[in-house]
Every structure is written in C-alpha cells, then in structure tokens.
C-alpha cells in the first residue's frame, strides 16, 4: 500500500483531478514496425528457404493473375502484359519467400488495367443524348483481390458468401484475431491518466458492434499477482485496420485523497474477438500503477515498491 502525495502547503495550487479528457493524452504510441527478414538477392535460387519451388510459385502466380476473373477481363486490354505481370509475381515471391505478393501483384494488374482503359479511346462511345461515355464492362469486373474467391464481383464491388466479410471477402467471421502488441508496452500510470482504455494491435479486425475485448483482472495480494477466475466483456472500437481500442473497467489503483492509502498496482489480461465468441489465442497484459509508489515494466511480476518514500 502507498499513501498519496504529501499534504500541499496552503499557498500551493492543487492539481485538477484526472478525468476522461486525460485518457488519450498519454496514450500516443508508434505502431510496432514490421521488419521482414532480409535475403541476399545475389544468391537467389529454387527452392526458397521455406521450400517453395519454381513450379509451385508459377502455378500460384498464374492462378492469381492470368486465370483470375480480373486477368480474363484485362488480358485483352492494350497495354496490359500478363506475361510480364506473372514474371514480376514470380520474382517477388522468390525474393521475399512470401506468397502474399501474388495478391499485391493482382492489385498492381488491376491498376494498370484501369489506367489503360481510361486512356484507350476504343472504350468510349457516344450516348443517346450525344455525350461521350466510358464503357465500364472491364472496370466493373475488377474487384479487390478478386473477392478472395469468397464472393461475387459486380460493379467493382464484392458480395461476400456467408460467413465472410471485408471489401475483398478475405476475413472469415469465425477468424480469431492475432494480437501482436499493446500501446505503451501495456503500462499505465494513474498519475497521468484514468487508464480506462488501451490500444491493442491485432489482425484481422472487423469494424462492427461485435468487436469485443475479453478482460481478466489480476490483483496484487501480498505482493503476488492473483488472477480473477471470471472474464468480463467490454466493447472494442476499431481505430484502423490493425488497432482496436479496448474500453476497460475502472482501475482499482486510486490516487485517493491526501493521506489515504490505496492499491499500488493492478493488472488486466486482455484478449480480443470479432464476434464475442472466437477469442484470440494471445492476450496482452495491461498494468495500472501509481508511479509515486511503484516502478513497473511490462512483465506480470514487473512492479516493485519504490524505496525511501
């Protein structure tokens, strides 16, 4: 236990109590960078380190580009070189050892196709009222990632099959998010903000009312972190494609009135689901503490009382 600040002198101005306005001020952070492994491109060979053969990759790139619905529409468009696009796809995957580059090259083909349609006069026609209009048959067939083979493409928009969503139908409603980070390393000082929310880095996330944070409380009992057996559900708010803001219960760590004792540290174990059911296997630890009394890091046993208070 720890007491609050010393009683201020009568001439000192007392600090305003923290409220919800302060809760995002100290939560600014940088999204953890993605640092892919670097390979020596002067010594590329088949198979790749993960075992991809040239035949495997050629089949993947042909299926994703040449034989895709977009490829079938764009293959006849002047200026679209499917052979070159497939070759670039094969090269990218060989360099990165990552088959997701096939999707990136499909997107590149769609952009090249659109550009060449717009500048090709043969795709323009006279309307009945004398105006010149663009023939959109090719453009209407271009959908993000060919709807991931999980939906139908119409007017450049995917209509996803049951249990799939996202603009390209790439996300299953039954997918569990993968968590890979938490803002401020999961530490929150109640002297700086109320600690009623925290950003969790995860993917995939669905922007819906069912985005949920599953919270298990840890309490400090005689300097030991003890988990509560119950798990409570709190709403999540999608901030961008890979971050959800979890709204949290009030921390038991209170600064309190001057002279009153309070709990010095507490923790929450946070998991995330897109549908309140399929919960992430990973969870993030969120520790609230009083910096006057404690020094903390982001491990479950990472808080120690300060000495010589």
From TrEMBL:
It comes from Paramuricea clavata (Red gorgonian). It holds the Pfam family Vwde. Residues 47-133 form the Vwde helical domain. The lineage of its organism: Eukaryota, Metazoa, Cnidaria, Anthozoa, Octocorallia. It comes from the Eukaryota. Residues 1-38 are annotated as: Disordered. This is Vwde helical domain-containing protein. Keywords: Glycoprotein.
